Amino acid sequence: MNEDSESDEDLVRRARAGERDAFGALIDRHQKAVAGFLVGVLRDLDLAEETAQEAFVKAYENLASFEGRSSFKTWVSHIALNAARSRQRWAGLRRWLSLDAPRQDESGAWEEQMEAAAPDEFAAFERRLEFDRAMTGLGPREKEITALRLEGYDLNEIADVLKISEGTVKSTLFTATRKMREKLS
Amino acid sequence: MNVQPTACATAIREIWTAWPEAGAVPAAALSHASVCVACAGELEAFRVFCARGAAIDGRSLAWSRLLPAARQRRLAAATRRALAPAPRRFRPLVLVPALAAALAALVFRVRPSPQEPPLPSGAIEAVENRDMLEHLDLLENMDLAEKLADRPRGGAQ
After folding, report:
1. pTM for the complete prediction?
2. Could you tell me where the beta strands, DSSP code E, fall in chain A?
3. d(CA B51, CA B43)
4. Buried (b) or exposed (e) across A92-108, using 16+ Cβ within 10 A?
5. For residue range A102-147, what is the model confidence (pLDDT) as tens digits?
6. Which residues does chain A have within 8 Å of residue B53's beta carbon, measured at their own beta carbons?
7. Who's near B43: CB < 8 A, 6+ residues apart?
8. A53: which chain B residues are within 8 Å (Cβ-Cβ)?
């Protein structure tokens, strides 16, 4: 069967029946976007990828509890966001307890990471980094919504991932874009 | 042209929540901006902001588009591996002590517990009688009574 043309619902059904490859197709289809928005939220490429992996493994283990009321993409994104929030809480606690060395300021760490990842795309990275710096002044929810939006999630999907109303998404995004605009001007 | 402030507020909100896609502004907001100078300015500012958030070739700045495909493939492969159950390998170094322990446990369970030989019935009775007397303190009291009876009175010999 051609997994590329199969719907998420069919792949989930097959994965539930024990077909690991069907879940593999879901990974190929959605993990990039999940890891992408996690980079925006966590501001750490390795951590974002680790969290995305954790989210997909957790989703696989809990596939039986997926009721299909939302799309698979928003369901796994919700799991990923919760995992990211949990990591942020722990990171904050570790920093507070001084068990960890203080993280590098984003200006240095980001350039290093991106340059190492793909030097030929550096101009595009710089543009994105400019936005990510503007995002640092946002509140946690504003940051999450902005990161999801930049990754191509529509307003309805964001509402589903965050379990909030679409109206709240809109008003939060409106405030966030205002703040970023000021910061970038 | 005069427009309602609430209509402007709605249009501006609709314009900015279309971010980062400049082309996703709803028709109603576009229509309003076409007749409202202030909102037309907002629409222009929005388009500039969107252009700033687009890559050189006009594509979005999503991390999933910016990160190298090889890196993303590695992540997907690693996640697939993380789903797979641990491979079943024959590990004699672990199995041998485990089997030995299991065998020892089995032998210990199956072996009949050693029984003590029964005591002769006369011995049991003697012990029981002695126990009873000791508990009643009879022996001690009898000895004391005998000593008192044998002792000479007044100390005259």
Report:
1. 0.70
2. none
3. 12
4. eeeeeeeeeeeeeeeee
5. 444 444 455 555 555 555 567 777 888 888 888 988 999 999 999 9
6. 127, 131, 150
7. B15, B25, B29, B30, B33
8. 75, 78-79, 82
